[in-house]
Amino acid sequence: MATDQLSRTFAALSDPTRRAILAMLSQGEATVNDIAAPFEMSLPAISKHLQVLERAALISRGRDAQWRPARLNAVTLAPAADWIDGYRRFWDRSFDALDDQLTSEEKGTTND
What we know:
5% strand, 5 helices, Arc Repressor Mutant, subunit A, mainly alpha
């Protein structure tokens, strides 16, 4: 069972339905019925997805009379974005080095 926040975040993001729910909530808060509308699944199934997102702290659920609207907690995505960004920087450096190497070879010189 994932115990650290980054693991919970990536586990929650591993499902395409949950990613779609987060995309929907990026437009504003929504009720379970609103969230379920575009999906071909039961309300209990949507509720289970919401529970996973809530445990990962990617969403929060309020109370408005009998409704429990869900809203995105985008700030909790920052550590995952930072983790991924480290690899983006690695690949940028790697491609820059490859580009330098290829440019040198085109000119007939090497950087050995």
